[in-house]
Design goal:
Length: 486
């Protein structure tokens, strides 16, 4: 069967935002493409972010090229990978396909959004034939083999009743998946020097996933939706083979391990470090990953550093134990501070995630989080407003009225605080004012400073722009600039 896999962006007007394009390999899609091809299907991929980049963000031209692609390849099945922020764009593109081919094409959506809201997704987009719920590669393979969408576990059609619905359990042996079919993707824009993957280091980086899932279940996190609860791991041999192929295929100097939590199995992580050192990759490659703060032990961090790790991302979220408990993070401020200290002592960079707008948060809590950032002095700071992603506890607790007002395109972590959504203990006016001030006087200027520091003596237009902004901030707000953890 001719199958087209589409990786959409958020809608026009929402994307791209700011100066960064988060270009990376959509890993699940790359595995799905490999699996389908291995089983005899013809697979084509449309990366809308890269398509738009190539069209200089002329959306009409990108749409015209998408239609040409459909005309030339006439896929029998089109599958959209749909995180919530891309739902509206999935629906729009599905409409374009339907206009062209009436009912001849099977159009499917998979990923976090259709998994969280299968019936609503089908209701909002009648052009979809069905949605894939949960982990989707094997469901898609079965649908492609059978040439149908009814009666397949994990696949929900509009007419499927709750009694007929068959869930599909996640695959317990991840190594059964063939390695990602990178050759089907436009890899040059991803693996060229960019600052996004290992922020803010201008490196030629490939993103890899070596596990799925997380041992925790935070109230705001959509990761367990498709990955299920618990953690499943690729074997060390599989990871090394994948990495070796990446190194042989692309001129890389860095790898981002994009696992939710890379140290879910400390023994396996130590084996990965050991294997990288034995192959000499620890000198050739820099790498980064994400850990939970309760996994950061000095001995482990030293091993990671020796194996080439340069940056660790932590979801610190807040400097309040009360709020950490409230969001189900299962970590403490003491663990957070210790993780930052150990990372620093091991000689690695810190990528700090902080979230504002937590349920019950006060203005003092926000100030304490800024104090925490000052104390740990991260090289990278991501400080955003919490958003209620479908499928999370946070979303389930929203009023029906607010749910009905949400625009899917707004539900991403690149923008402002979500209008009308204020779970904090502050009044709307105070919350909005405080969040805007934090962004204006702390987060943005700190970002310019961090980017400049990592840019070294580079003199590109981007660097000039950051320099201009940073200097202007220092001139206009000298005391605030002095209080930043630069
Ligand atoms: S620890 Fe991280 S990945 Fe795991 S549920 Fe919480 S936010 Fe999600």
């Amino acid at each position: 069967m001719n199958i087209l896999l589409v990786h959409p962006t958020p809608p026009r007007g929402y994307w791209p935002r700011g100066v960064f394009l988060p270009l990376c390999v959509p890993t699940e899609m790359a595995h799905a493409a490999a699996l389908l091809r291995q089983q005899g299907h013809q697979v084509l991929v449309e990366q809308r972010d890269i398509r738009l980049l190539q069209c200089e963000f002329d959306w009409d031209t990108a749409d015209a090229r998408f239609m040409t692609l459909l005309q030339e390849h006439d896929p029998a099945m089109v599958v959209f990978f749909t995180p919530t922020a891309t739902a509206e764009e999935t629906f729009r593109l599905a409409g374009m396909i339907r206009t062209r081919s009436a009912d001849a094409t099977t159009i499917l959506a998979c990923g976090p959004h259709p998994t969280a809201l299968p019936e609503q997704t089908l209701g909002e987009c009648p052009n979809l034939t069905a949605v894939l719920v949960g982990e989707w590669e094997w469901t898609l393979l079965e649908a492609a083999h059978q040439g149908r969408t009814k009666g397949i576990a994990g696949l929900r059609t509009p007419s499927c009743t709750n009694a007929e619905w068959l869930p599909r359990p996640v695959c317990t042996d991840l190594d059964k998946l063939p390695p990602p079919a990178w050759d089907l993707f436009a890899m040059e824009p991803i693996t060229r020097r960019q600052r996004w993957l290992i922020r803010w280091l201008p490196l030629r980086t490939l993103n890899l996933r070596t596990s799925r899932g997380c041992p925790n279940a935070c109230s705001y996190c959509a990761a367990p939706l498709t990955a299920g609860t618990g953690v499943r791991l690729h074997s060390v041999d599989y990871v090394m083979a994948m990495l070796e192929r990446g190194l042989n295929s692309y001129p890389l100097d860095a790898v981002l391990f994009e696992d939710e939590t890379f140290a879910a199995d400390e023994g396996r992580l130590l084996q990965i470090c050991d294997a990288m050192r034995k192959r000499g990759w620890s000198e050739r490659l820099r790498w980064a990953c994400c850990l939970r703060t309760d996994q950061a032990r000095p001995a482990l961090l030293r091993e990671m550093k020796a194996a080439g790790c340069r940056q660790i991302e932590y979801g610190f979220e807040t400097a309040s134990d009360r709020l950490l408990k409230q969001i189900g993070k299962n970590t403490t401020c003491e663990q957070n501070l210790a993780a930052a200290r150990y990372t620093r002592e091991a000689g690695m960079r810190i990528f700090a995630n902080i979230m504002f707008g937590l349920p019950g948060e006060t203005a003092d809590d926000m100030d304490n989080s800024l104090g925490f950032i000052r104390a740990i002095r991260p090289e990278v700071l991501s400080a955003t407003a919490m958003i209620p992603l479908p499928g999370t506890e946070l979303y389930r607790n929203l009023s029906p009225e607010l749910k009905s007002r949400l625009a899917w395109g707004d539900l991403h972590y690149f923008g402002d605080a979500l209008e009308g959504f204020n779970p904090t203990a502050m009044s709307d006016a105070l919350w909005n004012r405080k969040f805007r001030q934090v962004q204006k006087y702390f987060v943005k200027p700190l970002l310019w400073h961090q980017l400049l520091r990592d840019a070294g003596d580079e003199s590109s237009a981007d660097v000039q722009f950051w320099k201009k902004n940073w200097r202007r901030f220092q001139r206009r707000h000298p005391f605030k600039a002095l209080r930043l953890p630069t």
